[in-house]
Every structure is written in C-alpha cells, then in structure tokens.
Design a protein that fits this description.
Elements: H1 4-13, H2 18-27, H3 29-36, H4 40-48, H5 57-64, H6 74-95, E1 100-103, E2 109-112, E3 118-119, H7 121-131, H8 136-145
Amino acid sequence: MNIPFLDNWRKRHGPASATALMGAQEEDPQGVAQLLSECELLRARAATAGIGLDDSAASLEELDQLLPRWRDDPEELTWLGNDAGLYLGTVIIRTVPGAVWQVWPSGRPVVRLGSGREVDVVQAGHQWAVDGAPELSQLYAEAAET
C-alpha cells in the first residue's frame, strides 16, 4: 500500500517499519505529528479547487464539498483517502484538547482522544474518499464531543 507520509519518512530514516514508526512516535511525537500532517496530495487537490487547508474544522467542511474526481483513479483514490484521514487526524490533534497521535503495532497511525477512545482516521479517510460518507466534518464533530 502506498502511504505518502512514509515516502518522506524513508528519505530521512531509511526503510520504515511498524517498529520504526512506533519508536519514532515515542522519541519524537512532534516530528511524527509534523510528518503525518504533510498530506501533500490532498493539499494539492484542495489548492487546485481554491480551498486553503489551515488545519481547522471549517476546512474539513470545505473538503466535504469537493467534487470527487479522484474516484476514477484507483491509485489516487488510495493516496487521497490516506491523506484525508491524516488531515482529519491533524485537525483533531491540533484543536481537540487531549487528542494525540498513537501508532498501532501494525504501524497504522490513529488518534487517541482524551477519553481514551481511539479513532482510526486513516480508515475514515479511505471511506470518505470512496463514498463521501461519513463526512470529514461529521467525524470531527463526533471526536470533538468526547
């Protein structure tokens, strides 16, 4: 599976593994958060549509209005879904008190809320990219309530 943030990680740290990402999360949580927030493809598509991604809840609402032109390209669909999930996670981390990135043993990044609940934002981003539902803004609202 192509995961855009891992490409950048590999450039700096060599081949990535679940253990490497978990270790990096423990050693440098801010660095991992920065890496996860890159979302290059999503940011490029949003900019093309005139949407500025400022890591706010309002930007998630704007993304929900994008025409899903990526659905015709299976490779872009996968990458964009991944980026959408990572962007959702970034917005949650930056705006919901107590929310932090957590890396599962498989290497998958999820968001752990202050309540202890974990949100698989990558899975949610893929579902949004494929179906458009649930909306990113709806997922954010649910995370912000807990």
